[in-house]
Design a protein that fits this description.
Elements lengths: L2 H18 L3 H20 L9 H13 L4 H20 L26 H13 L4 H17 L3 H5 L12 E5 L5 E5 L2 H17 L22 H15 L8 H14 L4 H8 L4 H4 L1 H17 L7
Antiparallel strand pairs: 1-2
Length: 307
């Protein structure tokens, strides 16, 4: 990839952070997509400044030929459209070659969720799983907070300790694009948080300078990484006897929303708790609930059973 292409991408990502409030993870994904596109163009003897609409379409066709998922191809086109919109507005190009290109769309699949019994098994596993008593208290706090609030994994692992002081009934969470929202804490989550805070503060003198994160670690970011928590939750699934393939931090978020809806919570309230910008994103949980109710009828209604 040539240097001007790298400057275009870098400038676009900086602008998306400053002007659009794009989350770090979103910017990283778009950055990878655009670097891959620029490398593909270079292989064709082209660059970002000279690529035409047909070149962008050929790239997307190549992505499809390589078997990339529909969602991946949709995201790559979105990143390319954003880059060329930025280039046009900044006067780097006199046209936008991606303007009229329609993407593959995104396949609407229902999110995987967990039953209340499976969640309870995971919470019990967290209380018993860990090398040390301190690890077990931390694991319990992580899982209780995740299920009680429906936080995204990045929001959870990077939670500032200052937001959790004083036995709060509500937590202030900074979500995507720096948007803030308040979420209530359940009594079990408050109890787990109180115990973990005491344990964490007790250990702080032995770890040098006090960390600003509730779940501090020696990672570059200063807090527990998303990858570490992902591995932990898989271990908890094994210990709980729940299929690890269906357990991720995000399925706990889905379980939070689905269980609230099943117990009569208002969809608009769930939208606010999850931090969804558009209620259409939240509405998918009504379909999850409908599918679950359908399964229950087919399993337990006497006339639905095969003879």
């Amino acid at each position: 990839m040539i240097a001007p292409d790298h400057r275009w991408i870098s400038s676009y990502l900086d602008a998306s952070a400053a002007e659009l409030g794009a989350a770090d993870n979103t910017r990283a994904a778009y950055g990878r997509d655009l670097l891959e596109f620029a490398d593909w163009l270079a292989d064709q003897g082209l660059n970002l400044a000279r690529a035409a609409r047909a070149d962008v379409e050929n790239y997307l066709l190549d992505c499809q030929t390589r078997g990339l998922a529909q969602s991946t191809r949709a995201r790559r086109l979105s990143s390319i459209k954003g880059l060329y919109r930025f280039a046009f507005e900044e006067g780097l190009r006199g046209d936008n070659p991606a303007l009229q290109i329609k993407g593959p769309g995104r396949k609407k699949s229902l999110p995987k969720t967990l039953s209340p019994q499976e969640v309870e098994a995971l919470l019990n596993a967290a209380r018993q799983h860990g090398r040390t008593p301190s690890d077990r208290l931390r694991n319990t706090c992580l899982m209780e907070l995740l299920y009680a609030t429906g936080m995204r994994v990045t929001e959870l692992v990077s939670l500032p300790v200052s937001a959790t002081r004083g036995d709060p009934r509500m937590l202030l969470i900074r979500g995507k694009g720096g948007k803030e929202r308040m979420v209530p804490l359940s009594p079990p989550a408050r109890a787990a948080l109180k115990v973990w805070l005491h344990e964490r503060d007790k250990a702080q003198p032995n770890t040098g300078a006090a960390s600003g994160f509730l779940f501090a670690s020696r990672s570059k970011s200063g807090h527990l990484t998303r990858h570490s928590f992902y591995l932990l939750i898989k271990e908890l699934a094994l210990a709980a006897g729940v299929d690890p393939a269906k357990v991720t931090p995000h399925t706990l978020r889905h379980a939070f929303a689905t269980h609230l809806l099943a117990n009569g919570a208002d969809l608009r309230a769930i939208q606010l708790l999850l931090g969804h910008a558009d209620i259409s994103t939240t509405e998918i949980y009504t379909h999850v609930l409908e599918e679950r109710l359908k399964e229950l009828v087919l399993q337990h209604h006497p006339l639905a059973r095969d003879e």
